[in-house]
Amino acid sequence: MIQARNIHYSIKGKKLLKGVSLEAQTGELLAIVGANGAGKSTLLKVLSKEILPEKGEINIRQRSLDYWSRESLAKFRAVLAQQNALAFNFKVYDLVLMGRYPHFKGNPNKQDQEIVQYCLEKTGITHLAERIFITLSGGEQQRVYLAKVMAQLLDYEAIWDENHISKTPKYLLLDEPITGLDLFHQHNLLQIAKELTQKGFCVIAILHDLNLALQYADQVLLLKQGEVLGYGKPVEVLNPHNVLEAFNISVNLIHQSDMACPFIVHCHEPILTPKPAICQPQHFL
Amino acid sequence: MNTIAWQQSRSLGFSYTKAGIILTSLVLILMAVGIWAVGVGAVSISFKEVGCILLNELGWVNTHFSEQQALILTVIRLPRVLMGMLVGAVLGITGASMQGLFRNPLADPGLIGISSGASLFAVGMIVLELKVIQELNGLAGLYGMSFVAFFGACLTTILVYQLSKVEGKAVVTTMLLAGIAVNALSGAITGLMTYMANDAQLRTIQFWGLGSLGGASWDALKVATPLCLVPLVFVPRLGKALNAFALGESQAEHLGINPVRLKNQVIVLTTLGVGVSVALCGAIGFVGLIIPHIIRLLTGADHRLVLPASALLGAIVLTLADLVSRTIVAPAELPIGIVTAMLGTPVFIWILIKNRNQ
Question: What pTM was estimated for this model as a whole?
Answer without folding.
Answer: 0.86
